[in-house]
């Protein structure tokens, strides 16, 4: 059976499901109606959802009522006609749903779509109630980018792929070839640690990780970093600098002639402004690039990479033991754990 001939399953009338809803600055677990998927849509039972730093920032900022969360993995339990997956397929999804028609989408920048809808950020009043992964079920609308997940890949490895791992793939796409390169990774959180592993696997000669947290610096060595230092330490010349932290200036200063600086987008209010001398850029043939989000191909690449590298690196260390959904309000407001990602099993 082809994907376009996907089996259509129906949802029992008046069925409801648990979801974490942000109302103002408070998070509560509520029951929301379980929808019937329309053409091209997927209803997915969420097995594991991970807490991204942007989820904590969303709670701090408040806003219109909406279901939180954008990282997760689950199985298709109902599919509309023409949907991109079948019943029981195990899938992950990108954090944004693009229109596919605007100039940005046509130009290969769907992450900056003019009509972008964000998973885990759409107000309930829009009618897309189950739009976040911190719920027992999520409704993925037509146009949502998904990737199938092999059964042998555990939930903890797969869940962050839609956001964290795919964003790393986009950043390394912007960085260019890494074989033999000297790579600097600023920020050894979920993205930085993943980037260290991928850079190592792509043949980087050295990978230097910078982080203020000693435990994260130690973890970086477990993910391929040849050296890990605290901010302010003297840095050698590097060919590629990947910035996942709040300060890009030291990374720019460390670039050798012909080097590339890739700054990965963050919502953090602590992000420092970067002053760039255009003469320095020209004299040293430097390239500065920005990345915010990822394209569908990066999600596919992320799952393919994790499937290949799942036994090379200790990925499970990046995600804390999962808690029931009822614990989510606490997880979102307490300090982040040593592991870069906290996790919930929404159907517990």
TrEMBL record:
Family label: Belongs to the zinc-containing alcohol dehydrogenase family.
Top-level taxon of origin: Bacteria
The keyword DNA-binding is annotated on this UniProt entry: no
All residue ranges annotated as the Alcohol dehydrogenase-like C-terminal domain in the record: 191-305
Assigned EC number: 1.1.1.1
Gene Ontology CC entries for this record: cytoplasm
Alphabetic keyword roster: Metal-binding, NAD, Oxidoreductase, Zinc
Protein name: alcohol dehydrogenase
Cofactor requirement: Zn(2+)
Domain Alcohol dehydrogenase-like N-terminal: 38-150
Any one Gene Ontology molecular-function term assigned to this protein's record: alcohol dehydrogenase (NAD+) activity
